[in-house]
Design a protein that fits this description.
The structure is a single chain. This protein has about 400 residues and is α/β, with parallel strands linked by helices. The chain has 13 helices and four strands. The chain has two domains: about 240 residues, 3-Layer(aba) Sandwich (Rossmann fold), CATH 3.40.50; about 150 residues, no CATH class. α5 links the parallel β3 and β4. It starts with 18 loop residues before the first helix and ends in an 11-residue tail after the last helix.
Length: about 400
């Protein structure tokens, strides 16, 4: 597992998000292929509480121990960002801090809960408290005392009016566990961390930490979502903009649709039709080209299936109309459609000319006008039928000018 690890610094000390590193991470780990089968884990805790050690043991990463202190502004921004993007937030704290009025974790929890009171996540966050250097005090007792601390801090937060009486469990799936001292009992610490690791792969119903993923965004949109969230946090806004998942879904749907439609020029069936059109009309032109376009849209549907349905469908309708008018499609479809109409017109005129020549020779003086009219109507009907067959389902309402 260690050799498969890919680590990088996402946000610098100057508050710059490393978008290039995040995109490289996504490519290296094939993250975009995971759909919604992924978990973003963040960790918070007092200074020198062993956060790096815990992460390195949990996930075989190689985070360095950090020195120095972050400013209050950056600390709050980091907390906001972590809560907005993480599925699981680990709160790393000392056992001996439980119940203490001025414990190191109290300001941190206030920051966390103030951020959550702004309600910018549509799904619950799993909040995992990891109590370090477990003492002889039973875990059940520590869990009860910590729960009291948590509820007291939550109750003191100034919630939005509509959320004043909202229970903590409406925002979080709260879990509390404890670990022995890494310094004095490394073997036992490592064993218990290994067991804790397994819980990240199990649903809550089975004692795990993996929450309900139905409202979560596909992994392919994670880099953009991170960028949008950090931008909003840096602008010191209350994250009351359209939810990041809306912005990501809109962007990704547009990106995917444009990419699929841009491949129209390279479609083998289309290229063969283009060659055939140089010499004459193509049978079932409209149906064949409609199928090519429908295939593009089906691929779009497959790649956006994990995005919110209303956004996906609305964006699909808009993109279908918008993308079909883009220069790339106009350059490909419009000339082919016009070529097809020219062939139909040319064939209709030739057929009409031949038919009229025969009519002139055979028709009587009294029936000449009716014969010519019948001939013209017949050829016009055939031309209109050809035009109908050449019509492309998705674009028949557009004016090809």
């Amino acid at each position: 597992m260690a050799e498969d690890c890919c680590s990088f610094q996402l946000i610098s000390g100057d508050g710059v998000l490393n978008m290039e590193g995040l995109e490289n991470f996504s490519r290296t780990t094939n993250l975009s292929q995971r759909g919604v089968s992924y978990d973003v884990v963040a960790i918070m805790g007092p200074q020198s509480s062993g956060k790096s050690t815990l992460l390195n043991k949990l996930f075989q990463t190689d985070f360095r121990m950090m020195e120095g202190q972050d400013g209050a502004t950056f600390e709050k921004q980091s907390a906001l960002f972590a809560l907005a993007i993480a599925d699981t937030v680990i709160i790393n704290m000392w056992c001996h801090d439980i119940g203490r009025e001025h414990a190191a974790h109290i300001p941190l929890l206030k920051t966390v809960f103030e951020a959550m009171a702004r309600s910018f996540r549509s799904s619950k966050t799993s909040l995992l408290f990891v109590l370090r250097d477990q003492t002889k005090t039973p875990l059940e007792v520590m869990q009860r005392l910590l729960r009291q601390d948590i509820e007291k801090i939550w109750a003191a937060i100034a919630h939005a009016d509509a959320r004043k009486r909202t229970p903590l469990d409406e925002f979080f799936n709260v879990e509390i566990t404890a670990l022995p001292s890494y310094e004095f009992d490394e073997k036992k610490f490592t064993e218990q961390v290994a067991r804790l690791r397994q819980r990240f792969f199990l649903p809550i119903s089975l004692g795990g930490l993996a929450g309900d993923r139905k409202d979560d965004q596909p992994a392919s949109g994670l880099p953009l979502r991170a960028q949008q969230i950090w931008k909003t946090v840096k602008m010191n806004k209350d994250l009351d903009l359209p939810p990041p998942q809306v912005m990501v879904a809109t962007f990704r749907c547009e990106e995917i649709a444009k990419e699929k439609l841009s491949r129209l020029k390279l479609d083998e069936t289309w290229l063969a039709m283009g060659e055939a059109l140089k010499s004459g009309p193509v049978s079932e032109f409209g149906e064949k080209l409609s199928c090519i376009l429908e295939n593009c849209l089906c691929q779009y549907d497959m790649e956006t299936i994990n995005y919110e349905e209303s956004i996906r469908n609305d964006t699909r309708r808009k993109l279908e109309a918008k993308a079909l008018k883009t220069a790339a499609v106009m350059e490909v479809v419009c000339p082919a459609y016009e070529d097809m109409l020219r062939h139909l017109r040319s064939n209709a005129l030739k057929s009409l000319q031949t038919s009229l020549e025969g009519t002139v020779k055979e028709a009587s003086r009294d029936g000449f006008e009716a014969a010519v009219d019948s001939c013209c109507q017949s050829r016009m009907l055939k031309f209109e039928q050809g035009c109908e067959d050449a019509t492309i389902r998705q674009v028949k309402d557009f004016a090809w000018t």
